[in-house]
Known about the structure:
- The structure holds 2 protein chains of 2 kinds.
- By secondary structure, chain A is mainly alpha-helical.
- Chain A starts with a helix and ends with a helix.
- Chain B has 9 helices and no strands.
- Chain B has helices spanning 4-16, 19-41, 55-64, 71-102, 111-114, 122-138, 140-151, 156-163, 167-190.
- Chains A and B meet through α1, α3 and β2 of A and α2, α4, α6, α7 and α9 of B.
Amino acid sequence: MSAERWRQLRALYDQVLDAPASDRARVLEAVAASHPELHQELIALIGADAAPDSLLDSPVARFLAPALSPGDTLCGRFVIERHIGSGGMGDVWAALDSVRDARVALKTIRPGLAHDERLWSRFKREIQLASQVTHPNVCRVHELFEDQGVEPPRLFFTMELLDGETLAARIQRTGALPVSEALQIVRDVCAGLDAAHEAGVIHRDLKPANIMLTRRGDSVRVVITDFGLARPDAVSPDGGADGSMAGMLMGTPAYMAPEQVRGLIAVRATDVYAAGLLLFEMLRGEPPFRGISTLDSWMRRAREGPEPLAHVVPGVTAAIDDVLRRCLQYEPDRRFQTPSALVAALDRRPLPGRKTFAAVSAALVLVAAGIGWNLRPQTLPREAQQWYDEAQAAVAEGAAVRARNAMSHVLSAVPGFPPAHALLAEVHLELDMPAEAVEDMARASQLVADGARLSSTDRLYVTGMHALALRECDAAVTVLRTRASKNDAARAYRMVTAARAMERCNRPDDALALLAQAAKVDARNAAVPLRTSRTAGRRRRYDDAFSALRTAETLFRDRNNAEGRGEVLLLRGTLLAEQDRLDDASAALNAALDLASGLMDERQQLRVLLQQIIVVRKRGDLARATSLAGEALARAQRSEFEPVVIDALFTSANVELVQRHYDKAEALLQDALRLAQRQRNEDAVAGARIRLATVFVPAGQYAKAEQELSAARPFYVATRDTRNIGKVDALSGQLALNVGDYPGAAAAFQSQFDSASKEGDPEEAIRARSDLASALSLAGWYTRALADFGAAETYYRSTKQPVLEAYARLNRLDTLSRLGRFDAGEEFTRAATLAPASAPVQRYALQVRAQDALRRGEPMQALTIAEEAHRSGQTAMWIDLAMCLAAARLQQFGVSRDACNRAVAAVGGQASSARWLETQLIVAEAHLWLNDAVTTRQLLAGASVALGTRKESEDKWYYAALMAASAPRDRWPAVGETLTRELDQVRLKLGAGYDGWSQRADVRALLNRSDIKEKMRHG
Amino acid sequence: MTSTGDLSILLAAAAAGDRACESRLFNVVYAELKRMAAAQLRHERRDHTLQPSALVHEAYIRLLGNTPMKWANRAHFFSTAAGTMRRILIDHARARRARKRDGALKRVELEDHLDAVAVHDAEGLLTIDAALQKLAEWEPRQARVVELRFFGGLSVEETADVLQVSPKTVKRDWSMARAWLKTQLDAQADVR
């Protein structure tokens, strides 16, 4: 470094920091290209910038806090003996624990660390977890102490006292280690890592400086130190004190795994990566991926594997190179998932059961080495088979994470077994990761193409999964349904797989039938009723679903399978929530959460949490739902499960939508869309689009809604997903209604109805029919609408849904009213009594009654009803409009004019909405009765354009009549002809009902206004 | 003990460039800061909440009270004090390292400097000191910013005031220097 270089570096540094945060990564890359020799320094600077804890942040006087000297006593218990060293965190001392009468290492903690609340609480937790790890290869951590005897109080923790040298020092001293020694060290390190992982601690900072080689007599004990304690997580959540870069890497890049550098969370496989680096460095004498510059070495990491050592370092075999390559895979998922898998691969042993070790047989070696396949179909060695069975059971039970872990054991033991890859694909489908499933199957196919021999059962399975991953549904189902000739349990699992394939191909009824058969094949298989309940729930056959859940629960309980029970509870809670049985739902979900927390299953906890948010939202506690959604999202983003992030985004968006925060909802959904596109998860992409449409429609952004819907529909058509096709149609219909395209709306609802019928979903079908009826009614097809409303009413009565029945009935009666068939007079009141507790129903009933009164030519009654509603504190458009028109008919000028003005003010300027048009026309009519034809004409002029865009509307005749009634003589006979034409249209639509309609008091009054008849006579 | 009045004259002279006064000033400040530090350690100030960043400010008040003076002299004081603080700490850090290397307590000539003052993180401080010396060769102003902020405990504004540059410049200087020093510290820690 020279002055010149420093100046250059400074200039670049300023450039990066001056760029807006979103641009910084790009600027950094540009710098890397233009000044590669400074790039490494610059990266280190930016990274160090973000570090919250540094010597330099501590006020300097803190350094003068009384240092420890030999002989000092802390907490009245620890007697300092000598100074050992200074660490990143503080000083290390050897001390005598007078209580336990043993020597310990005592590590003081630099005050700066304790200042940061977040870091400190994480630190305490790490100590707590680390202190639970008892393993010879892990440095024992004892306890955290605070010595109050000084000012400021001194913080320190005690740990095992180690005597020896670090691996770093050893490599520096002697260069590369002998192969056998290196292997042994890595085995010990992995054993220690495993123990720590069991306790829930990931090291995150494994490097030669953190490995101690201590001498114990003749032997060497390998000890891992500094578990995740010195370094906070790889990502600093906010920038450094000066607002510098957020989310950048911290610490030495050389020993970090790619995901740490990229700012993702560390997982077990992160430690595996570090172990790989360790092994390489021990064998080679220096770390891998040495490049000319940092940038170069990063490119190597991403593109290439480590340099093969087999012909470079004596004693290193190809197998060791394989292991290194696997450890140092860029994607964590491709590495050994656990340190013990690494060791097993090194030793080429089948993975033992938890505590025992198996002998290696010749056959196993052959299988693992890929020799001898041509002789017999490949089977699994016994231990691997156990893991395979475990994985299969877990997949069927929906415990996807457990399945994935089990699969990693299988694959590390026998990487070349195609059915294992197929099972992994099934796991990935369960985890909503379809792109990964396709890759798994690609691997499996490649293996088969390369000559792997499979038994016929296995071949069917692989072929079936291949088809399923590619969504070739019919092929998948046909293949998977073929009987497997193994034992009952295996047959039952295969049937569950086939049923899941059917479901994925949108054939739920077939799935249920198959599951019923499966239950007979193996009555003890808990996966069958679990799957059944899910499928039945999807079809809203709640009774069947709950009964299946009870069966599943009993079976899981008998087997002591906590994960299964958790899944049952989650499913139960979900179904109860669907039925609006919110208290019961909460109870089930809370129990599910307890189980999931106990199992430390983050993914499951998140799934439960998302469901709980739905319940909270349904209860109406929107503030709480919003905050829970935010938490869930943050947690999901920290987790490793990207599909869960999408679900969390969907849930958050829904909560915002309910509160009409359209912008927020849209932003969340756009994030979800991008994420889904990145994951190449087409289901999620389509799901995001539909949800965006549900936001755009009420927000009035019709064009955008249209766009999303047209983008989503083809996918569902291609996957024959009638349920979602129906959803798209329902939204299209809503959209069309809002823009006044009534025929379009009717078509969409009809299509929705068809889908729902095909899907066998009567609830959905009836909903479609109701909406269809509304569209028809708005278009003036009252007679047709009548039939559909009636059907809805009958359905809701039979399914005991009084509120919906009430609405349907009121709609039907309203339609009768429009047809001028008033023989259903008092029925309005009776309809309302169907659901007395529902205020919306009561309000709607009043509205319908008032409008009916107007039609019957009883404006007094209408006015009374409207005033009653008004007095009881309701505010709704219809009240003002009813008062406006009724009062006009009664020649109550003042009342009428006020009400009319209120209505006009309330509806605002949204000329495209149906409400606006309705308001204009009614107020126009009112002014007609008030003998203010001028205003009438004005209002009509405003309405004409809007009406022109409506394709078929019940209001066309209305407009024409009003025009005719208010038009000056010179507009005749044109307006008269228009009116005649429109009346003909009505006659067309109503058929025999036309007479009844034309005898309607309000229609007659309008048409009979002497002006009109006169004009027509003279026309 | 130099009186406040004498000291402010001393300070003015030192600020004006008088070498002899400069070194006398240094000794006075040095003695005072050390005394304060030692007193702190002997718990004489238990009842006061520790204001760690204020050692230099405290020294200022103790030595110069409320004597009105030109900013140039005040600035000079703080510069000196920061440099003094650095000396104190580095001296102690060196002594510590020497003791460690020798393995046993050597109560030799070093003792008279030490009183009961000792330092945490001796290695770290020495690394910072060495790095700062290098930095001073490349960009002297930046090194001074570090000295004033870290060793002197001055705020961004105060530092800007002493050096007569904008606070933004100070922030940038500090942020980059701090980052660089941290990389130096990390490199040192790795070789442990």
